[in-house]
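Handout, section B. The chain below has 409 residues.
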Amino acid sequence: MCNNNGACRKLSGGVMCPSYRATRAERDLTRGRANTLRLALSGQLGRDAFSSDEMAETMKLCVSCKACKAECPMSVDMAAMKLEVLAARAKSHGVDLRDRLVANLPCYAPWLARVPWLGNLRDRVPGAAWMSEKVVGLTASRALPRWRRDIWREPVGAAQPDAVFFADCFNRYFEPDNIRAAVAVLEAAGLKVGHAVAPKGRPLCCGRTYLAAGMIDKAKAEMWRVINAARPVLESGGTVVGLEPSCLLTFRDEAPRLFDDWDEALGQRVMLFEEYLAAALEDGSARLALGPVAAKALLHGHCHQKAFSVLPPVQKLLERVPEMAVETVETSCCGMAGAFGYQTETVEVSRAMGELDLMPAVRAASTDTLVVADGTSCRHQINDGAAREALHAARVLEMAVISGRESGR
């Protein structure tokens, strides 16, 4: 628990604490939240303090970046504590319409993807965005992720794969080109790729959207579907690979706490695409011929990549691209943080977080510099705040693979 050392009050270096850096208010600080929680747990804030409106307000600007767990000298895990608060509040107050819409994305996405024009009406029909703000609480000042018809559908994978690919909901439905690029790069490296699929029903999901709404039981049900699909691969010594940091790293952080038969050792073999590929190239089990694609890449790390120290493999892979200098921006949270940046009551703080370091760095980059960000939220925040397209590292590596082929490397 917090010992009031105040390390979370730093205004530069690392990620902690993005909300405090944006507002400079003690309540929006890891220490401030921890002290409020201590009072609630000791009974000094009265009955039901954990699920009260006041506690919800205290936690409102926490973006669950997980930086405090990694950077605080006491390893205060505010993201885990916020999850407890969200769960208590969901149990006592229920879940509102907006949170249900976001949380249930894995359930309705397969159907809405069949009629993507319907999902995109909100940002095309005059007045629809305004209505969504008034009725649901989704700010009209931002466009929502665009639904695609050409979603990712798992092909028949290798019979004895080196790795099994797990496609997350965000890339599957909104940016399927990222998945196609990652699979293409892995195969170009000589690796055999299988695919994680449910034995029946809709595609697999990590449960992240349910966790963000405090709907723990539903989150566990989603995680369990993935665990059941992945366990045979992992127990035989294989690896599960994916793209979205907040989804994949759920199996290292939340899953071991929620399931008695899922431990950290299994979670370590659920790897981000760059982690797996960098290790395979290093041990010689993969080879990758790359050609030049740009003179410079500007890399922004997702908060969870930084918290779990898995950003270095991204840097190493990008540095393999010939003639490309890689600069990693020293940033806190981008500010989007899932639905946080779309909520009417938090959108301005979301933008303020982005303006601390990330947006100025992106705007200062030359137009021929590639902006790279692995997080879905990060890419949307960059597009919205700096009018620049940010690419997943897999897309950059795919470009380099194509360039290598064309140049005969």
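Note. The chain has three domains: 7-93, 163-281, 289-406. Compare this with the example in section A.
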